[in-house]
Amino acid sequence: MSHFVAEVPEVVVKPAKMINLSSSKMKALAAALVLMLYVYLLIYFKTIYLRTKRLDEIMTVALKTEREMLKVHTLDKKLALQMAQVDRLYEDY
User: Fold this and answer.
1) pTM over 0.70
2) Which residue stretches of 1-93 are H helix?
């Protein structure tokens, strides 16, 4: 069986009464939020810049190391050829 429920009168609440955006407290909170967002973005982009700069330095060192390794490799090839030539010269002894 169903019970009848008495109707409740509707109460209309205007948004201005719920949140007053023009109050000084809300303005201060909005300013603080904007300031925090600005500081966060500043730190974020500065971090990206510093990481990029560091990666450029690492790439420079890596390229320099690669060049040095190529020099060592060519020197090793030359030494191996010279050692083979010396071995061929002293085969008679």
Assistant:
1) no
2) 15-18, 24-89
